[in-house]
Inverse folding.
């Protein structure tokens, strides 16, 4: 069976609909995230929001997430938008370039830059504009201002365009041979250039960009990822497809395991700004074109319930495809749908000629899309290996409404946006697995004499793999003893004639939480 057919089978109803050409066309609002790399980079940003006080960084993240065109990021975007609205007045005060950057982000989210945070951001860009049209005394700022006014449909003073042209170097670059400034100037001129002089300046800037791309595909700068994300996107906007493709190939090789990108060449620590700038090229958008109508995204779904770390039934994982995941346990699991409900995850299904299909899990996505036009819930299985780890996720053979999960297995439900095609390589897979189990779980042993006043000690034994920590709970004739949670327990008068036992609970990062109870002691005697 081909991988595409298997993936449709994992959905259930969606399989038949798609294979027979019955799905609705994907809306353009969902066309900017077409592969796993873009998805993972956006997830990194969505789950690592900047500090609330870092207004500029919040703008960068908002723009980057908006560039995906995905309403699945509505929750973090609304958080970012709320922060920016609160900080708008102080952020733009006396700073037209800051007003321009914020106006671009606000417009990209489908909000009104002329009425945001009690301020008219568009008017603030040209307020007190000097005669030479300068904004921010640097071409990057000048370009931001032009893009902001163009996006808002505002009148652009000729002096502002002239000022940008004056800042161009003889070799076609902007700034101090700066790829970032040149990239943004290309983006701005592509939007506003209408005279021959302006078109020539744009052509010169593009020529500089093409000639200064390294053989590996990036542009040299302090942070090559930032520069390549910006310049690659500008090249794509300008129709330099080969240049953009080479840049994208290099950029993909820089992506780290957590989905983020480093801000140094071949760095190994993800950086928020570098990841945000990488998304310009990955999503195929730019400061001029990024767009997501936040108001049309519907009500923000509730957060997923807290993950559990122990399970004696069926593990149930939900991955919203936006960085939000949870791992739960089902004790009732006649079908995959029943398992979801048992795990505390409300499910909405709808009937079709091919059987019931899931359209929402815990009210995600915001609407029940019965045409699969915006995406679908894929369905996966995994089994535990002999060493306690989990095998790879595989597409389920049937849909969750008709499946029959077996105790001890893991099931995952992954939301995949319709913008990611079936031919995507690599294909999307669930981003999490259940915690690993143990291969050796010895019964704890109690040492010490069972006499009042003597101290008993719990010996956990050697577990494999070794947990990070143990916790203890002592019992008297099977009933927990108040406050007795240490590794040792001093016997009291109340213990006389009773039998003592201890429960040892193992915990560890990436490991299951598992408890084992010791045998009971002999009856406790007097001193």
């Amino acid at each position: 069976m081909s991988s595409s057919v298997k993936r449709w089978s994992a959905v259930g109803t969606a399989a038949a609909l798609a294979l027979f050409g019955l799905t609705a066309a994907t809306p353009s609002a969902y066309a900017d995230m077409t592969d796993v790399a873009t998805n993972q980079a956006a997830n990194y940003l969505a789950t690592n929001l900047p500090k609330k006080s870092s207004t500029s960084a919040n703008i960068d993240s908002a723009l980057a997430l908006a560039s995906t065109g995905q309403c699945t990021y509505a929750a973090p975007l609304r958080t970012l938008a709320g922060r920016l609205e609160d900080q708008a007045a102080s952020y733009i005060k006396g700073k037209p370039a800051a007003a321009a950057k914020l106006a671009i982000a606000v417009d990209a989210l489908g909000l009104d830059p002329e009425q945001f945070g009690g301020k008219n951001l568009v008017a603030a860009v040209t307020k007190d504009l000097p005669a030479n049209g300068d904004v921010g005394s640097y071409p990057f700022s000048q370009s931001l201002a032009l893009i902001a006014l163009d996006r808002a449909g505002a009148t652009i003073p000729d002096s502002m365009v002239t000022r940008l042209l004056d800042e161009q170097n003889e070799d076609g670059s902007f700034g101090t041979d700066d790829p970032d400034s040149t990239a943004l100037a290309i983006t701005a001129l592509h939007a506003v250039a209408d005279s021959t002089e302006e078109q020539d300046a744009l052509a010169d800037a593009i020529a500089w960009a093409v000639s200064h791309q390294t053989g590996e595909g990036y542009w040299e700068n302090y942070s090559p990822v930032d520069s390549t994300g910006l310049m690659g996107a500008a090249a794509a906007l300008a129709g330099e497809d080969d240049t953009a493709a080479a840049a994208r190939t290099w950029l993909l090789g820089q992506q780290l395991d957590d989905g983020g990108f480093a801000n140094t060449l071949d760095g190994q620590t993800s950086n928020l700004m570098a990841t945000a700038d990488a998304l310009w090229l990955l999503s195929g958008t730019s400061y001029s074109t990024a767009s997501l109508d936040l108001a049309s995204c519907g009500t923000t779904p509730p957060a997923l319930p807290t993950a559990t770390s122990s399970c004696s039934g069926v593990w149930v994982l939900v991955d919203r495809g936006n960085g939000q995941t949870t791992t739960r346990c089902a004790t009732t699991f006649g079908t995959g749908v029943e398992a979801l409900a048992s795990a505390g995850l409300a499910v909405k299904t709808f009937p079709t000629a091919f059987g019931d299909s899931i359209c929402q899990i815990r009210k995600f996505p915001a609407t029940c899309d019965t045409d699969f036009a915006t995406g679908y819930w894929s369905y996966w299985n995994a089994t535990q290996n002999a060493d306690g780890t989990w095998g790879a996720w595989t597409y389920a053979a049937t849909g969750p409404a008709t499946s029959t999960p077996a105790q001890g297995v893991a099931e995952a439900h992954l939301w995949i946006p319709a913008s990611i095609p079936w031919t995507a390589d690599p294909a999307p897979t669930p981003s999490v697995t259940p915690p690993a189990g143990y291969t050796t779980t010895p019964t704890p042993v109690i040492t010490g004499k069972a006499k009042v006043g003597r101290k008993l000690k719990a010996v956990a034994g050697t577990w494999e793999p070794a947990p990070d920590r143990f916790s203890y709970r002592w019992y008297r004739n099977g009933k927990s003893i108040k406050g007795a949670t240490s590794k040792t327990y001093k016997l009291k008068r109340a213990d006389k004639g009773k039998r003592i036992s201890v429960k040892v609970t193992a915990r560890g990062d990436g490991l299951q939480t598992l408890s084992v109870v010791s045998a009971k002691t002999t009856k406790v005697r007097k001193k």
